[in-house]
Write a structure and sequence with these properties.
Number of strands: 4
Shape: elongated
Order of helices and strands: EEEEH
Length: 70
């Protein structure tokens, strides 16, 4: 199993794992490829979010400048 980040709690003989993102499997090569693919997808989504945020920020600055000049 490949996990992104999470919490492991051990109480007696019980172990509970809570993770945000996980990929199950036993073949390390397949897990490696799945993690690599997910990382590339995440990178693309982050770039898309940054692009949208930049557009929103520039629009806000433009509107504030227009408001200030009125």
């Amino acid at each position: 199993m490949a996990v992104d980040e999470g919490v492991l709690v051990k109480t007696g003989l019980s172990v509970v794992v809570s993770v945000r993102n996980a990929i199950g499997g036993t073949d390390l090569a397949q897990l490696h490829e799945a993690v690599k693919k997910e990382f590339l997808n995440l990178t693309q989504r982050e770039q898309n979010v940054r692009s949208v945020m930049a557009i929103m920020e520039s629009d806000l600055i433009r509107r504030l400048a227009e408001f200030h000049h009125d």
